[in-house]
Amino acid sequence: MQLLDGKLVSEKIKQDIAAEAAEFLASNGRKPHLVAILVGHDGGSETYVASKMRNCKQVGFDSTNIRYEDDISQEELIQKIEELNQDDRIDGLIVQLPLPKHIDPEKITEAIDYRKDVDGFHPINLGRMQRNLPCFIPATPYGILLMLDHYMIQTTGMHAVVVGRSNIVGSPMSILLARNTQPGNCTVTLTHSRTKNVKEEVLRADLIIAAIGKKNFITADMVKEGAVVIDVGINREVSTLTKSGYKLYGDVDFESVAPKASYITPVPGGVGLMTIVGLLKNTLAAAKHAIYP
Ligand SMILES: Nc1nc2c(c(=O)[nH]1)N[C@@H](CN(C=O)c1ccc(C(=O)N[C@@H](CCC(=O)O)C(=O)O)cc1)CN2
């Protein structure tokens, strides 16, 4: 079994991004600029946005975090997004998810100019992704592709089973793995809460993408010998034993599954760190007008 080390790979890719950001600054007299809107005080979201800001600084980007209380209206939020869409000093614009219940994430996603949609959630980017056209790829699936690429894992011909059909991970991941590119060229099964026998489906997988949001959902008896296992889960539990006050668990029962896997990502230290890299790469591409000239 080989560990797919998100820390190592993300730091290596960030060095390349930093070099490109320095070139961008030299040629354009400004840094790539990401704006992240955070609504409310969800503990996970606070951590992830802080990490996005910190990582922007590390690679030489400008970043701005705009914060709102839970009670901001959908109209106010859309008005702010429209203002930021027009601002030429901003390259990438994201709204951290989840949002409070009274705000429709679809409306928010569609309000963002697709040319600044570095989360890759806008229907234009999703449609272009499915057609294999230049687009912003959602950060987590993008990070997973970069990880598979780094370890030169040949996915062509593999049977990939994606567990979970979220707009952020499962759905786009299933599209990307089916595309005629490497990593990709997989036969893909997308399983979800209504799938009749998830265990039977996962047992057939050469490549498992676990993105269901349930602690230790994938157990050893569901995994074929030699499978590649990618754990997207970040399930937080309060803990008095850690400095942060919480402990993270993946969707995969690492202890029992690792001995059967050919490759496996840890949690923490796996896909989460690659998500940040996906976002940074998209932001750099937006600044360079590399996707939409
Ligand atoms: N607008 C968006 N919202 C959300 C996205 C997204 O891509 N865009 N994805 C997730 C959360 N996410 C990014 O925002 C994210 C998740 C995890 C990590 C990460 O670095 N994880 C670390 C552990 C960090 C910790 O201590 O909690 C790891 O796995 O090692 C970064 C970003 C939902 N919302």
Automatic annotation (TrEMBL):
Its EC number is 1.5.1.5, 3.5.4.9. Catalyzes the oxidation of 5,10-methylenetetrahydrofolate to 5,10-methenyltetrahydrofolate and then the hydrolysis of 5,10-methenyltetrahydrofolate to 10-formyltetrahydrofolate. CDD domains: NAD_bind_m-THF_DH_Cyclohyd. This is Bifunctional protein FolD. Residues 4-119 form the Tetrahydrofolate dehydrogenase/cyclohydrolase catalytic domain. SUPFAM superfamilies: Aminoacid dehydrogenase-like, N-terminal domain, NAD(P)-binding Rossmann-fold domains. Pathway: One-carbon metabolism; tetrahydrofolate interconversion. Transmembrane segments: none annotated. The gene is folD. HAMAP family: THF_DHG_CYH (MF_01576). Homodimer. Keywords: Amino-acid biosynthesis, Histidine biosynthesis, Hydrolase, Methionine biosynthesis, Multifunctional enzyme, NADP, One-carbon metabolism, Oxidoreductase, Purine biosynthesis. NADP(+) binds at G164, R165, S166, I234. Belongs to the tetrahydrofolate dehydrogenase/cyclohydrolase family. Residues 138-289 form the Tetrahydrofolate dehydrogenase/cyclohydrolase NAD(P)-binding domain. InterPro entries: Aminoacid_DH-like_N_sf, NAD(P)-bd_dom_sf, THF_DH/CycHdrlase, THF_DH/CycHdrlase_cat_dom, THF_DH/CycHdrlase_CS, THF_DH/CycHdrlase_NAD-bd_dom.
